[in-house]
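Weekly structure sync - notes
Attendees: PM, LS, DV (DV joined late)
Agenda: review two folding runs queued last week.

Item 1: First target. Sequence and structure tokens pasted below for the record.
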Amino acid sequence: MRKETERQIFHLVLGTLLASLILLLGKFYSLALFGTLIVAGIFLSELLHKGIRVQPFTWFVQRLERENVRPGQGTLTFVLGSFIALVFFEPNIVFLSVLILAFADSFSTIVGKGIGVIKIYNGKTLEGFIAGFLASLFVVIPYLNMPAALVSCLVASLTELLSPVDDNIVIPPLSSLIIYIMTL
């Protein structure tokens, strides 16, 4: 559980950093940075997958990555999902969708694995689902009207719970679309 908690804290910090960079850099520079990170990340992942040690990345992967996944997969998919959302939506919307992903995913896992009891789907718990929903709602409520905040966070939490595709890729574009539609 300790490794997963550390991994989720990294996920939360990474998401907050990416969201902040989106606002700070704007659309063009964020796309350039994220595109560069994706290419570099794929290259590093391949090196690590082949057993080539590249510090400090090797240390991070050994400490934080889940078993039986490609090295750096979680970070790569997080940046990829953010990049996809940024292609189609404005930075202020993607900023919120990345925060939703960071908080919903991290809190649902930490609470679900830590104290979750009521299993609802695929080993995931009701307590984790509620924690992820409330954490993401708490973060975006200052920026959105209540219906947009509720719907975007609920859909993100349901996606985290049910999606057969990596939620790091799906949630930023999906949340961005919902926020865009509900704030027209």
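Item 2: Second target, run right after the first with the same settings.
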Amino acid sequence: MLCHCFKKIGLLIIGLSFLVPACSGLPVEYKVIQAQNDEIRIPLREINDGGVHFFTYKGWGKKVNFFVRTDEKGTLRTHFDACYACYKKKKGYRVEGMDLVCNECNERYNLKEEIWKRVGMGCSPIPFKSTVTESELIIALKDIEKGKRLF
């Protein structure tokens, strides 16, 4: 009887070990985006729909995650999928309805606000520079590189 219980416990431990990588705190990988000539170029037709779009850039031995959102005025804004308060947990954000929610502390941000008032303080998405042309969102690699320490 005792031996049978140890077998069940052993199987449970083996089963749980497969879940550990998913909870390890490593950043997830979104749609991987490539750079050309030190720039990331994303066609507006892929992102200018009012939603939130998550991407991963692989560089410097890291996966740097970021997202593009459309604010209430229709302006595209770029943010790292991290904040200064929770970045060490490597959990990023998720979308729930009209809110962006931190996966670590559950702080919420309305996606349609033009500018998030708490940016740069505590748990808030970290913005970075990007440029919008007639047909593309352009991100300089030097601007993505500034956030690599968060990942």
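Discussion on item 2: The chain has three helices and eleven strands.
Action: LS to circulate a short write-up before next sync.
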